[in-house]
Design a protein that fits this description.
Elements: E1 2-6, E2 9-23, E3 26-39, E4 45-56, E5 61-67, E6 75-76, E7 81-90, E8 94-105, E9 110-122
């Protein structure tokens, strides 16, 4: 698990290897990840959007941006957390992801970025 705190918001990420399959004559490696967003600040915050940089071992980079996470823009009270799971496909058995969330602080009515720490994606069979 990797963890990072930005402005009182703690991001924790756990990953899993889900398997591989062929799509359009190319092998794809499926990974899952679970993110917990914990509000350790004194302010109510809302996650508005996400930005992901997804890398694989073949130097492919995919950038994913969008509103919320899995269709939600959760409001997180002080001392509470929001957990969700998602996944991605890579063209290699190794890769990494990093990014940030844009969040609204209700006390100051300002938007701020919360860093998602870099986390590795690796298929267990490929580790020596």
């Amino acid at each position: 698990m990797v963890q990072l705190v930005t402005r009182g918001i703690k991001i924790s990420v756990e990953t899993t290897y889900e398997g591989s399959f062929y799509r359009d004559y190319k092998i794809q490696y499926a990974f899952g990840y679970t993110v917990t967003i914990e509000n350790q600040s004194k302010d109510i915050v809302q996650l508005n959007s996400r930005h992901w940089d997804i890398f694989d071992a073949l130097n492919n980079v995919e950038i994913v941006t969008g509103e919320g996470v899995i269709g939600k823009t959760p409001i997180i009270q002080p001392g509470e957390s929001h957990t969700y799971s998602s996944g991605c496909l890579l063209s290699s058995p190794f890769g990494a992801m990093k990014g940030f969330y844009s969040m609204l602080n209700f006390s100051t009515n300002s938007i701020f970025k919360v860093t998602i720490p870099t986390f590795k994606l690796s298929a267990p069979f490929a580790i020596n």
